[in-house]
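At this stage, I wrote out one protein, both as residues and as discrete backbone shape codes, and that material follows here.
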Amino acid sequence: MINLTEKSRKILRAVYRGVGVAAVSLTVSACPPIFFNGYAMYGPGPDIDREEIHIQGHVKCKKTGNPINGIAIWIKDYSNYYTQLTSLNGSFYLYLPVMDNYTIIFTDIDGEENGGRFKQYTINLTKEEIKALAENQLIIELELED
């Protein structure tokens, strides 16, 4: 163990504080929030060097027409986890890498909490269909489980 003088300890504490502040400021400046439709999305955002497309839409109950929040959305063969949950008004917005085909799966993960238990829904879209949706919203209607 190295014995440090009080002056050396003060200098090291100042350096560590400076490194901590620098690390936090680098983290915050590297990943500023991106605001879209009132949501703050953190991270570097879309990859500028890679083409990406997006899908936006709403999920609602087929029987009542009410929006459903908390529906998990994931893309088969792209994500091994849920990429997003629908918001309070049932809306979602996804950035996707360009692929030939997309299998998008909507799953009720909270059970009875948001108006009932809903059946899982899967939709298959081609790259051209998703690009055609760029200016429109995809409306997904989920059926209640019996």
About this structure: The chain has a mean pLDDT of 75. Residues 43-142 form a domain with the Immunoglobulin-like fold (CATH 2.60.40.10). Strands lie at 34-36, 39-41, 52-61, 71-75, 84-85, 91-97, 101-108, 121-126, 138-142. The chain has two domains: 6-30, 43-142.
